[in-house]
Amino acid sequence: SSDVRSKLKITPPRECDERSRRGIVGLSNLGNTCFMNSGLQCLSNTYELTQIFLDNQFERDLNMDNPIGTGGYLAAAYGELMKSIWLDHRGSESPTWFKRVLSKFAPQFSGYAQHDSQELLTYVLDGLHEDLNLVKKKPYIELRDSDDRPDEIVAREGWENHLRRNRSSIVDLMHGQFKQKLVCPVCGKISITFDPFMSVSLPIPMIDEMKVTVFFHHLNPYISLTKLVFVLPESTTAGQLKEKVSGVLKLETSEFVFTHVVEHDLSHVITGKDSISKIKKKRGLIVAYQIPSDAYPDPSNPTKVVKPVKRMIVNVCQEQQKKGWWSSKTEDTLISFPRLFFLPDISAREFYLEVYKVFRKAVRNIKDYCLGYDDEEIEALEIDDDEVKSEFDKMFAGENQDNWPFKLKIPGQKNRVVDPIQKEGTFFGLHGESSTSRRDATVNLVFPDNTPAAIKMLNQCSQHPDLKKAEHTATNNPSSFSLSQCFDAFIRPEVLDKENSWYCNNCKKHVEATMTMELFKLPKILILHLKRFKNRNILFREKISAEIDFPIRGLNVSPWVRGDAKAGEDDAAEAASETSTNATNGACSVNVGGCVYDLYAVSNHYGGLGGGHYTAFAKNHFSGKWYEFDDSRVHPISSNHLSGKSAYVLFYRRRDGDEPNGDSNSSQDSQKTDEGEEEDEEI
What we know:
Blueprint lengths: L1 H7 L17 E2 L6 H11 L2 H8 L18 H15 L4 E2 L2 H10 L11 H15 L19 H15 L3 H6 L1 E8 L6 E8 L2 E4 L5 E9 L7 E9 L4 H12 L6 E7 L2 E6 L5 H6 L3 E6 L19 E14 L4 E16 L4 H17 L10 H7 L3 H11 L11 E4 L5 E2 L9 H5 L8 E8 L4 H7 L2 E3 L4 H4 L8 E3 H9 L2 E2 L6 E3 L4 E3 L2 E8 L3 E7 L1 E3 L5 E3 L3 E3 L5 E2 L15 H11 L13 E11 L6 E7 L6 E5 L2 E5 L9 E8 L13 H11 L5
Parallel strand pairs: 1-2, 5-22, 6-10, 7-16, 11-15, 17-25
Antiparallel strand pairs: 3-4, 3-21, 6-7, 8-9, 8-10, 11-12, 13-14, 13-15, 18-21, 19-20, 22-31, 23-24, 26-27, 27-28, 27-31, 28-29, 29-30
Helix pairs in contact: 2-6, 3-4, 4-5, 7-18, 11-15
């Protein structure tokens, strides 16, 4: 109606004349809006969608009462911009009104900060869909589990449910369907769901390798701290790393534990399922501690006798003078990684003796230690236990603490010093820990401030001779990948992390399930988002600049489709029927042509994070030539110049025999490429 047109500022449809630019129009940069211009140029050249707005067809579908839409404002502003690009005579347009409407309904895009073109595209297409959604009142739909029903039944049910809530030109053109399979690692339950999509985010299959350094602390104090360096996949778990360490050191995995040590403080014990890459992203070191073979039960040996021991964490400190404005005070400062002791309830003096055995080299400034694992070399360094006890008795003979080589203090008890002379009672009793209490207790070992040599001795380590090559191994990645490799990575099973765990109805708990994604229904317009931006940790993102080799014509996605290739049919039941016919053999419906696509637009990103720049490549509907859109500048290019290094979002059109440029198998493309190469002027 005229009231609606007036409210939404919709102009009447107008004819295209010989002076009309027909889409070959730049968009002014309003201040870091290159991301928006790039996305809009790709959508503008999706002519099936543009045509709906040029002749105001979209007006009849406006859903101004949709609570999750924009009241038709986004659709109207987008339509007016398309008319300017395709019907007006100017070589450049200013998308000011569209930007104003966008900012009003999507505050994340307000202002003039740089944003992501893929996020902009997702919002605009979602907004247009809701503004044009023919479903005025969305029904509540309770989702059912697959319950071992055939895929075609579950897929049809999912697609029909989607159409009951979503019917628009966007759905008809751009919505497809994923098949998602989840497998519980505990009970093996399989859940299969079919979810709609508007774009496919393809991972770039980088060789995600990382260097992992483990510092191994041996029970034998005459073997130095050992540095183990491995080059491993980023998906490596602590359990898998344990197997590696076990193989190198010829130890059972039950004979040592992994810990995460941050600034000489033991943060936590690492369990088998923990992700090593996540631990590496945090500060700190991975320190492994060998444990006595009789400290824990052996599942393979039920008759094994296990000694009742407790785990004691010994923090290694040194007294240091801290000077203030008016006075100075002595503080105990951590100077080395903590040590673990596995001991029964022994007396305080016996505990001092066990600690002395481990720290004897540092106490006596003994520089000789074993770099390898040769039994004769170790034996040459070892001394008799009686001799060690005799040394210990002399060092801790008197009550003057200043003469002791170190002191043991109990944190939480005002750093009370444990008396090494005391032979009665148990150390754990003095500590406040009974023999039946929790497993871990903590004590601080404190060196006097006049022992600088001890610090150097405490942190000596040797590199394992078999792993020296890994220290200098570069974790390089190939400089280019094919789009097929990206699709292969997309359908590859992955284990969900703890943050994205899945609730298993059988186990009644959240589990880290194995998830597999596949394409099931394909839309007319297939939008492929290359996941170039990767989160390394909470604070750091990086861009993957590898070149992606993508076909301009003839992209056949049938190897990655597990169902019906045609989505967005008006008759959902007919589409589901086609699914049931073809899902059994994993082929596309009708013929292979239903899975073959031709490229028509690309959103590009150049540069790094924060300071990058977006442009677009697009194939014009009328001329069939390729153009580069760089904000207000537009010029023709050869299809040979489409860069795979900057490509970020790819737009493909399915070959249905009705594409605007005629026969998709003609040699027209090569002719247009030649024409494009002759022209290089800016328009």
